[in-house]
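forwarding from the other thread:

> can someone predict this with pyridoxal-5'-phosphate?

sure thing
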Amino acid sequence: MLPRRGIDCQTDAWKRELARSFTQVDALLAFLGLDRADVPGLDPEPGPFGILVPRGFAALMARADPGDPLLRQVLSLSAERAQVAGYVRDPVDDASAEQRPGLLRKYSGRALLVTTGACAIHCRYCFRRHFPYQDLGPSQSRWDRALTEIARDETLTEVILSGGDPLMVEDGALADLARRLAGIVHLRRWRLHSRLPVVLPSRITDRLGAILTQGRLPTVLVIHANHPRELGEEAREALLRLDVAGVTLLNQSVLLRGVNDDAGTLIDLSERLFDCRVRPYYLHRLDPVEGAAHFQVSEHEAMRLIETMRGRMPGYLVPNLVREIPGAPSKQRVA
Ligand SMILES: *Cc1c(COP(=O)(O)O)cnc(C)c1O
Ligand code: SF4
């Protein structure tokens, strides 16, 4: 049964790769040819939100450059410990939007399921970096309750699987979830928000492509890339496979100081995304989460960057500049 073994081999490769990720600051620095002393403001012992960087993602970083925009997204700095006014643990007020454990209802017609707390990478600016994932309880019974609620509410047309990262869920459980969602007659599509096509492209197997597209519901996958260099050749191949499988591909970025706060980088990002068959969807202003204030870019600067993009690119390659306002009925357009 060679073909079957072949599939299993492909299926497990991403888990093996994930298990080999960098979880120690010193090991990551050594891989890049850096010492602790090379990185101003380094925090070599981050607290509960530790370092997590897949090797494939680290391989896309420039060597011996402490300011590399990919490295900046994942390396802990002592600035994260600063208490800055207005920067809080739950900046988007997930807590008030939680209707059942892990089921967030904020926007008309859409429900968001915090599918799992796990990610393949830890982004230092993450707005859910303090989310109480450990209070969610076992996923199966939680999904059961969420699906019951989704089935009961006929105003819902779309379910968004988020997290954490929903593609961290195993194929079998994901296929089961997809089948159950497709069985809810008032749903018209499902959406996944995942950084895995970018940071762990080996997760995007042919089998996953089939799981994502086998049912009745059109599939939208919103990936998350902030810098053109994050989209390496493996990520491009993974995304092309999903495109061929029939997945609608969108990208959301976060505007980050020292990562992508210049028009040239944002333009290159949009171009690279489209090379990978992905349309730029959102450019988010950073949510003011505790520990990430050093990444903030001013609203004025953000608007100027979008204006520059508009002057140089077709409209469909310019993302919507948005921010989240707790309690508002949708994400708010900034420009
Ligand atoms: C961002 C978000 C959505 C989706 O918003 P879109 O504008 O449709 O992309 C849905 N629910 C929650 C809770 C969100 O934070
Ligand atoms: S939820 Fe997304 S932004 Fe947050 S750490 Fe995970 S991958 Fe990064």
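The chain has two domains: 6-81, 94-333. thats all i got for now
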